[in-house]
User: Which sequence fits this backbone?
């Protein structure tokens, strides 16, 4: 009997102490999916472009995709990193309209629609079906390698490959047509996107202190020239 009374007394004390607890701590703020001030506005991008190192690409023959990591990784300090979600899902959550996320796991994108910036196409996405959407590194990994990433640490390259500021959800075929070409050799088919493309491209180069070739710089100047004055 005595032990039962003791148990009830402990339970009552716990209940009382629980009633006097303060409000539950608010959940931590979500990790931003866009870097602060990114992409730069046209004026900032022009200024950044002037400050970039101009030189021809180097070490192109030593490039290997795996140098940037074999898989998507959340374990970096890049924009969107360490939020518990796969990098590709972060890109889809940011770029898709009519977004539907998983009930049990909000990281998972169940469905949505991409208004492709490169072509203007509307591309549906469904978790259970193959899609025509790929994740593009705006400044491709091979292009970044030639512009200075060959000298980075593996951790820095992994960060670059998973930085949401570097990535866009785009039309699969257009992304494959682009490959690792730089701005002087490829530009989006949709002319209305040239300004933002150049702003993003230049912002990435500046953020990671990557060089530009002389033709690449000229092409970016032309693309930035399409921005509203």
Assistant:
């Amino acid at each position: 009997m005595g032990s039962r009374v003791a148990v009830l007394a402990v339970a009552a004390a716990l209940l009382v102490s629980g009633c006097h607890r303060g409000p539950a701590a608010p959940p931590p703020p979500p990790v931003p999916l866009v870097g602060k001030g990114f992409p730069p506005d046209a004026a900032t991008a022009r200024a950044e472009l002037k400050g970039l190192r101009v030189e021809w690409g180097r070490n192109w023959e030593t490039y290997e995709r795996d140098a940037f990591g074999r898989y998507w990784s959340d374990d970096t300090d890049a924009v969107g990193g360490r939020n518990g979600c796969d990098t590709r899902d972060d890109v889809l959550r940011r770029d898709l309209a009519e977004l539907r996320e998983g009930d049990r796991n909000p990281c998972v994108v169940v469905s949505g629609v991409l208004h492709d910036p490169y072509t203007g196409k509307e591309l549906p996405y469904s978790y259970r079906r193959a899609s025509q959407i790929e994740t593009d590194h705006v400044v491709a990994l091979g292009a970044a390698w030639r512009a200075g990433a060959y000298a980075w640490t593996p951790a820095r390259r992994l960060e670059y490959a998973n930085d949401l500021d570097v990535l866009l959800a785009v039309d699969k075929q257009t992304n494959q047509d682009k490959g690792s070409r730089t701005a002087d050799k490829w530009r989006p088919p949709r002319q209305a996107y040239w300004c933002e493309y150049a702003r993003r491209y230049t912002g990435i180069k500046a953020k990671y202190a990557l060089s530009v070739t002389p033709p690449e710089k000229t092409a970016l100047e032309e693309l930035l020239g399409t921005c509203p004055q």
User: Anything to note?
Assistant: Residues 2-224 form one domain. The longest helix spans residues 2-19.
